[in-house]
Every structure is written in structure tokens, then in C-alpha cells.
Amino acid sequence: MTTTAGLLVVLGAAVGAPTRYLADRWLQSTHGTGFPWGTFTVNIVASFVLGLITGLAASAIVSPAVAVLVGTGFCGALSTWSTLGYETVRLAEERAWALATFNIVVSLFAGLGAAGLGFAVAGGAG
Questions:
Q1: Is 122 helix (H, G, I), strand (E, B) or coil?
Q2: How many domains does the chain have?
């Protein structure tokens, strides 16, 4: 990775990480349930944006630098697989089996679907 690419990742992450935190706190405060809606939402949004930026880059609509800034930096910091794992374990420890299962299964399929939709919207590989 070049110095420029590294700086782009840092800049994107500097926006993505606080966005994740603020979105998570806001969503959790508005829903007030034991389900981790904040993490679920940011992961789906990040998947869509990553699919979109990947499709735009594949179609040469955006530069590789923009793809690194938004895809690797912003989306990488916005999404969080480790928190998904932790929150699922927490739900299982609370014996909220249905919510734990929902969190894993729906996060996986919705994330893949969102990424695919983003890619398709961008006209990627087409």
C-alpha cells in the first residue's frame, strides 16, 4: 500500500468510526430493546455502500483512490463484524436464542443482499 492509499484509508476511517458510534448510540436510544439495532443497521448500510463503490470502481466511474477512501477506509470503519459477534454472544448468554439467531442469519443475508444491490445499482460488471 502506498503512503497516499494509507492516508486515504485513515481519512475514510476517521469519518466511518465516529459515524458508526453515533449511529449506534442514536438507534439504540430510539429503539430501547435488547436487540443491537445500531450494529445491525451500520453493517447493512456499510455493505450497501461498499457494493456501490465497488460497482462504481469496476465500471471506472470512480477512481481507485475514491474506492480506497470510501470502501476500505469509511466502510471498513463503519462496519463491525467483531461487535456483531460480541452482541450475538451476549444475546445467547441472556438465552435470547431467537434474537441471537436472527442477528447472525439476517445480518449475513441482509449484508450480502445489500452489497449485491449496491453493486447492481452502480451497474458494476455490466
A1: coil
A2: 1
The CB density around residue 30, as the number of other CB atoms within 10 Å, is 9
| Residue whose entry in the numeric block shows the C-alpha cell 445500531 | 38
Residue 126 inside a domain? The answer is no
- pTM here is 0.92
Residue 96 lies in a domain: yes
Q: Which three cell numbers stand for residue 77?
A: 470503519
What are the per-10-residue average pLDDT scores of the chain (126 residues)? 89 96 92 88 97 95 96 96 95 96 97 97 77
| pLDDT the model gives residue 46 | 98
Residue 59 lies in a domain: yes
Q: What is the dihedral of CA 4, 10, 14, 16, to 10 degrees?
A: 100
Vertex 42: Cα angle to 29 and 113 (nearest 5): 135
**CA 108 – CA 115 distance, rounded (Å):** 11
Structural domain span for residue 8: 3-121
Rounded Cα–Cα distance for residues 124 and 118 (Å): 9
